[in-house]
Amino acid sequence: MIKAPNIILVGPMGAGKTTIGRLLSHSLGREFYDSDRIIEENAGADIPWIFEKEGEDGFRKRETHALECMLHNQDCVVLATGGGIVMREENRELLSNSDALVVYLYASVSQQLHRTSKSNHRPLLQTSDPKATLNALFKVRDPLYREVATLVVETDSRHPKSVANKALEAIKRHLKSENKAQNANVNG
Ligand SMILES: Nc1ncnc2c1ncn2[C@@H]1O[C@H](COP(=O)(O)OP(=O)(O)O)[C@@H](O)[C@H]1O
Ligand SMILES: O=C(O)C1=C[C@@H](OP(=O)(O)O)[C@@H](O)[C@H](O)C1
Ligand SMILES: [Mg+2]
């Protein structure tokens, strides 16, 4: 059993946040949440509908509210976020100022494109050139994911189970080194 506060997954669309988050939560015996599902449940509508009726700005407001509620009410859960969670400074501050362990699931743009091509539920990718959109988003967002993340886990050419195991090992290593540093502070 590992002792860690909330584990929060960030990264681009198609990085596998929803898939890996669920696998991680099973391995850890923790509850799993996905900010996109929380938003949909609260709205009583799906994400394409919210984007259509309220615009991206309406969706982002709902996203901030979902993140605030999770950080305020939940402890020791696994939370998958949506790829745009880092766009608002307010959200980055919420993530950085919380004691959550934030894991950036990295995926190359070609993998993002491949993995998102099976679904039409991502409004931002309903363009004539989703690859150009993913490239443009990646340029802006990659530094922001790195800014809020404690750990970065590479997901290209790995099966989801292998990504989840890799993330788990990285989390355990991180917690061990954090404990050692704390003990050194107490004893030193
Ligand atoms: N490591 C992986 N290798 C291959 N396919 C993956 C991997 N991770 C996720 N997928 C697949 O990619 C698609 C998008 O995954 P999802 O978890 O929804 O990503 P996200 O929540 O980051 O947008 C799903 O069909 C999922 O099964
Ligand atoms: O990158 C984004 O801005 C978005 C990512 C989506 O979540 P996933 O990253 O889980 O696909 C979802 O929140 C919405 O379509 C917007
Ligand atoms: Mg997702």
From TrEMBL:
Its cofactor is Mg(2+). Pathway: Metabolic intermediate biosynthesis; chorismate biosynthesis; chorismate from D-erythrose 4-phosphate and phosphoenolpyruvate: step 5/7. Its main location: cytoplasm. Substrate binds at residues 36, 60, 83, 141. Binds 1 Mg(2+) ion per subunit. It comes from the Bacteria. The keyword Glycoprotein does not apply. The keyword Amino-acid biosynthesis applies. Its EC number is 2.7.1.71. It is an enzyme of class 2 (transferase). Coiled coil: none annotated. Keywords: Amino-acid biosynthesis, Aromatic amino acid biosynthesis, ATP-binding, Cytoplasm, Kinase, Magnesium, Metal-binding, Nucleotide-binding, Transferase. It catalyses: shikimate + ATP = 3-phosphoshikimate + ADP + H(+). ATP binds at residues 14-19, 122, 158. Mg(2+) binds at residue 18. InterPro entries: P-loop_NTPase (IPR027417), Shikimate/glucono_kinase (IPR031322), Shikimate_kinase/TSH1 (IPR000623), Shikimate_kinase_CS (IPR023000). CDD domains: SK. It is found in: Cytoplasm. Belongs to the shikimate kinase family. Monomer. This is Shikimate kinase. It comes from Marinomonas arenicola. The lineage of its organism: Bacteria, Pseudomonadati, Pseudomonadota, Gammaproteobacteria, Oceanospirillales.
